[in-house]
Each structure stands twice: as structure tokens, then as C-alpha cells.
């Protein structure tokens, strides 16, 4: 693979950047689809499975994208429709003053030096077309008013740059007007969707989730196998047999986790942690074989697809007759739940406001979604002394915490994971302030950009995150980065292997699971990974 490290990681020497092919005037819409820097298109079969428009086999490198004959009308009608429906979109098209406060805040810009990766320039890709067709100044003055024609080259440029934005919303944090470029990207992707331009890494998981229940396409019997295996393994480690029921009608709580938690590593150890917490808290819960996915790749293609995938969680909650829903360590699931669910499929008034059966705490902030994050639930247990913890069992780790974009910026879940980690580990250090909490840097692979074909762009985009991890590795000896997002757990290992070797990735509930002393457990010899357990002050765990 070519070395993706830019010659000037934070520089703006556009002439010498190793990013996309050198290009001078911003008016020139032509882009070069260079291997390693774009995602493959979704094939006809996948688009058809989801009933999406213009299914066909094509690739971004094709000269002719075989857009429908009336593609221009479809896109402009789609834009007009969204300008009518979403006040935020209209506002974001109108109010940017080009102050530049967002310009250097995007990890893709920092990592690539490509000026079109500045958030303001990314939004301008759409804004310039908006001006041309929807504002008097743009219609009359054209380029003088910052307007440009919608051409096939512009569509290709949209595809390139809207699929080089992870919808992380870091830029929005710094915009004095609150312009959320992630929302602009979402509309850009929706407009591309209308003419059949989608990426496979988004549509394939979405189609599987729609038909089978989860992004990985794991059928119910394999889902059960995987949970049974986890129960057996936990018994081997702790001597305690926990329950992991599926589709149990009348349970109090529906547990929904990202599918990677029961089929990928290191996610799987997080699942073991959940099972331990739920057992210790005595929660009457069930998994669902159809709502066997917390993530929502629909969000990365269109609001409609996001709504479809989110709906099945609530349909399953209704069918199983649970009182409320508990959600696992996922990223964008929480963006959908906190920011869209209520108007997409809610309010979920057939459910009850979550109340912890172990502590009696009523989680009033979930009164509309009726869905609680597992970190909120666990924090409450620790606060009430309902978990016995031995943090010395994690002494082989010096931990840092990466705030996953969506839990941090979309739901403000900043303190709970730190509270859990401080009780589960003895060495927790923070990365520099400007790279954590609300200002956290994205992994560079979210919003459907985690494919292998896109690796060069991912390594560039993940550079700021990895650089901060490298800093704490060198300064404090950090050897594990905890996080609460399935995409992070899947993509950070590759990122760190390249930029910060020696740093592993773990879920918050994995580290917690190592520390939990279960009631009646046998002497513990290993942690959840099967590694020899670190013990308090070097003593054996008696
Ligand atoms: S910070 Fe906001 S107003 Fe300023 S250039 Fe960026 S999007 Fe426009
Ligand atoms: S949402 Fe994130 S990836 Fe997209 S432009 Fe803003 S900072 Fe960049």
C-alpha cells in the first residue's frame, strides 16, 4: 500500500500534498478516483433488495455512471423537497459567512491537506448548486454569486467528498452559527441515493439488517450459537452460568447491541461484560433475533432507510411486550435514537420510562425514546454500590479513553464511561484536551467508510485521533484505548497498528467485566481475553 502519510500533516501546501490529485481552481469539479481513496459502489442486486432507485452495476472509476436520463431533474426536485421539509437544511444553505472557524477542524482536512475537505468547502459543494437554482442572485449572476451549474462532474465530486466525511460533527462544534456539515453531507448522500449512487459498504449491511435483522447478516441460529458460546466461556472464566435469553416474551427489558458485539473481536469481550452486569443486577431481559442490531447503516444513505431500520427495534419491543429498551456500546445507534427517533418512529409511548430494577432509579431523560445506554445503567449501579469491583485486575493496562463521536457529541455521554473506567482500572490517562470529550477526533472510518478499499483515506482521516493516542503512549505508556462504538472497535486497531503500534482497543464493558467480582465466582485466573489476570499488588487472586 502506498504510504498515506502527508508530507505536511497539518499544512496547507496544496501543491505538495500527497492527497487527491493536485487541482487548482475550486470551480473545477473534476475529481480523480484514486485507488485507496474511495469506496466501491453498491451493486444492482443490493440496491434492488432495498427498492432503491436506478439499481445498476457500476463503479466510480467508470467514465459513464449511467445516471437516469432525467437525473438533473430528479436531484433538483429532491433538493427542493428537502429545502421545504428541513428548515435546518435551508438555514445551512443560507447562513454560512465563510468565517473559516470550521476550516481546520475536520480530521480529513488535517490528514489530507485537501482544501475540499474543509467543512466549509464540503458544504459549498451543495451550496453552490443551491444558489444557482434556488436563489435570485445565483440565477442572475451565476459564478459571481458563488453559483454553479449541476453537471455530471459535480455529481461525481459530491460522491467523492460526501463519502469522505464521517458525519462526525466536530466541525459543527466550532461554527459560530451552528452549521452542522454532517447534516449537509447527509442531504448530499440522499440526493446521490435518488439517482442510484450509493456505496456498497453502506448498502450491503443495511440490506442485511433489513432482511435478516443485523448488519452482518447473521441468521437467528448463528446468533443463538454465538450467545450460547459466550455463556459457556463466561462460565469457564468465572464459574458462574449467566442467562442470555432470545425472543422471550414478557421480559422487562429488551437488550439491543451492535452485531459486532457477538461476532467480532475485540467487541465480543464487551458482550461478556454486559452479560456479567445484567446477571449481577438481576435484570429480567431478552435479546431479539430480529432486532439483533443496534447500529443503523440506513443513516448513512437516507433518512428513510434510517427510519426503516430503527423501526424494527421498536416493533420488536412491542411484540415481546417489554417495558423499556437497553442499548449497548454503539455509536450511530445513539445518534438515531437521540436526534431522530422521536420524529421518525416515536414517541414510544407504548413503553415505560426506564427504571433500574436494581436501584429503582428512574431515567427521566429517556422519557421519549424509552431507551437507555448501557453506560448510564452501569454507572447508576456503581453509584449505588451494586457492583463489587477489583480494579487491580486491569493492572496490565494503562488506559486512555476515546470519546466516540456520536455518544459524545450526539448525546453528551462524557462522564459515564470515565466514571466506569475510574472504578474498573487504576491507570486512566486522558489525551490532550482539544482531542477528547466534545472535541473528540473521529476514528476516520465512520458513516460507512470502513471498507478496505478506502484504507488510504481512512488512515489519513484517522491521523489526528491516532496522533493523540501516540502522544499518551509515549508520555504515559498507554497500551489500551477504551471506546464505546462498534465501528471504533473494528477500525481503531488498524489505525493504531499503523500510527501508534502497541496500543490495543477495548470496550468499556470489557474492562469493567475484568474488574467485576461476581457473587459466588471461582478464583479468577484470566481476564475476559483469556490472558493471565493482573492481581492486586502482584498477589494471587484467592
Ligand atoms: S464556521 Fe460556520 S459560518 Fe464559519 S465558515 Fe464554517 S460553516 Fe461557515
Ligand atoms: S462532519 Fe466531521 S468529517 Fe464531516 S466535514 Fe465535519 S469534521 Fe469533517
User: What small molecules are bound in this structure?
Assistant: iron/sulfur cluster
Number of extended strands: 8
Number of alpha- plus pi-helical segments: 21
Shape: globular
The strand line-up of the biggest sheet is 2-1-3-4
- The span between the termini is 49 Å
Along the chain, the helix and strand elements come as HHHHHHHHHHHEHEHEHEHEHHEHHEHEH
Which percent band covers the strand fraction?
under 5%
Low-confidence stretches: 1-24, 537-542
Q: Which structural class do the helices and strands define?
A: mainly alpha
What radius of gyration results from the CA coordinates? 24 Å
Major sheet summary line = 4 strands, parallel
Helix fraction? 40-55%
Mean pLDDT value: 93
Q: What does it look like?
A:
The strands form two sheets. This protein has a four-stranded parallel β-sheet. The chain has a four-stranded parallel β-sheet with strand order 6-5-7-8, sandwiched between helices. By secondary structure, the protein is mainly alpha-helical. It is globular, with a radius of gyration of 24 Å. Mean pLDDT is 93; it is low at 1-24 and 537-542. Helix 5 crosses helix 9 (181-194), helix 13 crosses helix 14 and helix 17 (415-424) runs parallel beside helix 21. The protein is built from 21 helices and eight strands. It is 43% helix and 5% strand. It has helices spanning 44-49, 71-85, 87-94, 107-112, 119-134, 136-141, 152-162, 170-174, 181-194, 200-211, 220-238, 267-281, 303-320, 332-344, 374-383, 405-410, 415-424, 455-461, 463-476, 486-499, 508-515, and strands at 253-256, 285-286, 324-327, 371-373, 399-401, 428-429, 480-483, 504-507. The longest helix is centred in the middle third of the chain and has 19 residues, at 220-238. One iron/sulfur cluster binds at residues 105-106, 108, 119, 122, 165-171, 181-182, 185, 442.
Amino acid at each position: 500500500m502506498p504510504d498515506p502519510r502527508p508530507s505536511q500533516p497539518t499544512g496547507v501546501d496544496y501543491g505538495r500534498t500527497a492527497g487527491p490529485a493536485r487541482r487548482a481552481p475550486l470551480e473545477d469539479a473534476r475529481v480523480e478516483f484514486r485507488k485507496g481513496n474511495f469506496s466501491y459502489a453498491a451493486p444492482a442486486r443490493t440496491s434492488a433488495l432495498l427498492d432503491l432507485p436506478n439499481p445498476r452495476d457500476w463503479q466510480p472509476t467508470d467514465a459513464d455512471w449511467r445516471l437516469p436520463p432525467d437525473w438533473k431533474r430528479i436531484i433538483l426536485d429532491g433538493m427542493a423537497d428537502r429545502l421545504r421539509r428541513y428548515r435546518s437544511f435551508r438555514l445551512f444553505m443560507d447562513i454560512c459567512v465563510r468565517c473559516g472557524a470550521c476550516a481546520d477542524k475536520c480530521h480529513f482536512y488535517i490528514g489530507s491537506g485537501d482544501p475540499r475537505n474543509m467543512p466549509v468547502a464540503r458544504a459549498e459543494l451543495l451550496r453552490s448548486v443551491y444558489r444557482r437554482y434556488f436563489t435570485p442572485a445565483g440565477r442572475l449572476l451565476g459564478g459571481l454569486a458563488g453559483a454553479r451549474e449541476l453537471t455530471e462532474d459535480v455529481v461525481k465530486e459530491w460522491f467523492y467528498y460526501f463519502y469522505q466525511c464521517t458525519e462526525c460533527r466536530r466541525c459543527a462544534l466550532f461554527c459560530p452559527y451552528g452549521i452542522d456539515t454532517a447534516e449537509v453531507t447527509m442531504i448530499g448522500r440522499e440526493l446521490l441515493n435518488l439517482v442510484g449512487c450509493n456505496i456498497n459498504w453502506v448498502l450491503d449491511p443495511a440490506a442485511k439488517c433489513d432482511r435478516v435483522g443485523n448488519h452482518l447478516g447473521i441468521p437467528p441460529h448463528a446468533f443463538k450459537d454465538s450467545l450460547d458460546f459466550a455463556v459457556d466461556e463466561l462460565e469457564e472464566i468465572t464459574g458462574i452460568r449467566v442467562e442470555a435469553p432470545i425472543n422471550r416474551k414478557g421480559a422487562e427489558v429488551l437488550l439491543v447491541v451492535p452485531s459486532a458485539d457477538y461476532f467480532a473481536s475485540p467487541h465480543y469481550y464487551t458482550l461478556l461484560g454486559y452479560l456479567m452486569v445484567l446477571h449481577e443486577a438481576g435484570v429480567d431481559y431478552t435479546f431479539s433475533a430480529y432486532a439483533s442490531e443496534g447500529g443503523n447503516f440506513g443513516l448513512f444513505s437516507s433518512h428513510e432507510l434510517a427510519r426503516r431500520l430503527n423501526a424494527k427495534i421498536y416493533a420488536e419491543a412491542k411484540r415481546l411486550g417489554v417495558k423499556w429498551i437497553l442499548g449497548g456500546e454503539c455509536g450511530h445507534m445513539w445518534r438515531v435514537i437521540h436526534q431522530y427517533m422521536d420524529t421518525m418512529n416515536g414517541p414510544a409511548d407504548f413503553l415505560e420510562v426506564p427504571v433500574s430494577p436494581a436501584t429503582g432509579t428512574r431515567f427521566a431523560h429517556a422519557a421519549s425514546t424509552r431507551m437507555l445506554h448501557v453506560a448510564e445503567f452501569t454507572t447508576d449501579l456503581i453509584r449505588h454500590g451494586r457492583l463489587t469491583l477489583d480494579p487491580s485486575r486491569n493492572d496490565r493496562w494503562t488506559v486512555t479513553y476515546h470519546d466516540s463521536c456520536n455518544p459524545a457529541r450526539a448525546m453528551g455521554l462524557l462522564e459515564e464511561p470515565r466514571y466506569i473506567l475510574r472504578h474498573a482500572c487504576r491507570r486512566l490517562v486522558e489525551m490532550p484536551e482539544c482531542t477528547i470529550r466534545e472535541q473528540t477526533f473521529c476514528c476516520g472510518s465512520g458513516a460507512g467508510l470502513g471498507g478496505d478499499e478506502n484504507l488510504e483515506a481512512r488512515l489519513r482521516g484517522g491521523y489526528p485521533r491516532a496522533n493523540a493516542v501516540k502522544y499518551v503512549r509515549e508520555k504515559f505508556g498507554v497500551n489500551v484505548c477504551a471506546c464505546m462504538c462498534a465501528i471504533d472497535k473494528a477500525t481503531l486497531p488498524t489505525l493504531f497498528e499503523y500510527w501508534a503500534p502497541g496500543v490495543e482497543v477495548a470496550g468499556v464493558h470489557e474492562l469493567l467485566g475484568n474488574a467485576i467480582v461476581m457473587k459466588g465466582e471461582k478464583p479468577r485466573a484470566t481476564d475476559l481475553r483469556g490472558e493471565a489476570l493482573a492481581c492486586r499488588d502482584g498477589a494471587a487472586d484467592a
